[in-house]
Amino acid sequence: xxxxxxxxxxxxxxxxxxxxxxxxxxxGNISVKVLAPDNSTVLVDCxxxxxxxxxxxxxxxxxxxSGTYSLRITPNSGATANFSATLSSDVTGTLAYGVxxxxxxxxxxxxxxxxxxxxxxxDISLLIFGGSFxxxxxxxxxxxxxxxxxxxxxxxxxxxxxxxxxxxATGIYTVxxxxxxxxxxxxxxxxxxxxGNALTIDGGVLGVSLAQNQGxxxxxxxxxxxxxxxxxxxxxxxSSGGGVAVSIxxxxxxxxxxxxxxxxxxxxxxSCALTVLPVSGNYIVRLTPSSGISATAQLxxxxxxxxxxxxxxxxxxxASMRVGQGGYYRFSAKQGQRYTLKWANxxxxxxxxxxxxxxxxxxxxxxxxxxxxxxxxxxxxxxMNGLYSVVITPLGLETGSVQVGITAPVDVSMTTSADxxxxxxxxxxxVVVSGKTPTGTVVISEVASQDSSxxxxxxxxxxxxxxxxxxxxxxxxxxxxKAEYEGDVRNEGxxxxxxxxxxxxxxxxxxxxxxxVALTKDVTYQVKIRGASPSGSVSFYDNDSLIGxxxxxxxxxxxxxxxxxxxxxSIVAKYSGDANNLTSTSNTLIETVAVIGVVDTxxxxxxxxxxxxxxxxxxxxQ
Length: 622
Hints:
6 domains; Jelly Rolls; mainly beta
């Protein structure tokens, strides 16, 4: 244990620093206590300070009296320690609103203590910025006039904001800067009376005055997801050159949300589209004049105008006389559909941009009153389903209006009279086009066939009252048909619909002349095929084993066979198809072979070849 003494005065604020701490054996610690002049009362127990941290610091309460105080330092059991001890008065000062005060120390354990006057009900923010301390290497605490804590935060190299709303008491508040462990460095402090430095979204203009070589910060409260535009107008300076740099700082001060760039004095100002706010909280608008100049200007913060756009409806009018205010408009899109973004009657210069649902930029155009007052942007085929965004951003100090709308090909509905057709039957296609009394032409094509677009044109006709019917003669096979509307003066073309049909379908039915059939007796399996004069052959299978093949004649085929043992057999007939008829497979017939009497069966068919009656009779057999 070691004792050290120092002489202090009543009311003095001190900080103790222990640096270069090492112990033997290594990894130990020391305990530190500060004793009052009576050498028995513990003024503060600093606790354990560890060699693994290289030392530490301890805040000594305001000395209760003048006299000689003692430091009692005790290594942990069985250890020895080497260290340096530093005792420092707090760095003190007064914070004037809007003026930066730098706290700097090279002494381990030294604190900062700064005061400012405030009035009950006042809104005040403390900016903590420009620090050289590493992550969470210090604590800033604001102490009320009664000595209780108002608010605190850790600080490092990033910018932090402590907001105090509707202060409860009038008096002198203290900002206490407490570096952690053995850290030293500097950090800037600035108090802001928010009544003069508060920006209100969609509120009035805020006049700003920047002293020579002195920037300023302005605070606004934003909500996550907000889209905002900042206008800087009336920018003037006694100097002819230079400008003012503008940046937006996030609530935690860890990053610049938007770097708006520098606005030349000669430009009079400009506008800045803020990045969509990532979190809710207090954001900072930081204005920094060029070296050696002072400036005045007006700030205006605005929400983006927004609404939903309805496809093929009347356009929306975007109109604003607030510098920096943009527009955010959305519409619902369907993957694969064609859309056209149109603008007209533009009275200002700016940009119009289209973003896809995933947030990626599809295309951007400059718009202005003289050379691009009206125009369009075409999306030939939407890459995904979801909400597309149209963002209008004014340039410079421009304000005004523009009309914006979204058009898409009108809906086309196509139906067929059936999904399957026998070869030779006409495929009847009915097409209905929506829109504003659509006329014009509808083209029927087969997808992925011969023409340059990959489609084979089959037929086309002009709409009558928005409708048209087509009768198509198609070869056997599967056909994917596409009906596409070409449009007219009132309705955008490009809309289409598809349908798939099968032509040349057949139906194969299987019958047995005897079921059950007597052992060793002949049984005939007969097939009837419904189709367009089917030819070809039919193969007969017993439990997937071929038992015979027959040529189709008159839409029918048959084979005769017998069985040498009793049991059940699964009989299936498979039609081979021909040039006009597709293949088909019959129903499965379960044939039973048994020891029974002879069964005589007579079949009767109508003129179309359909079975209408079966007559059976029995005679004695073995």
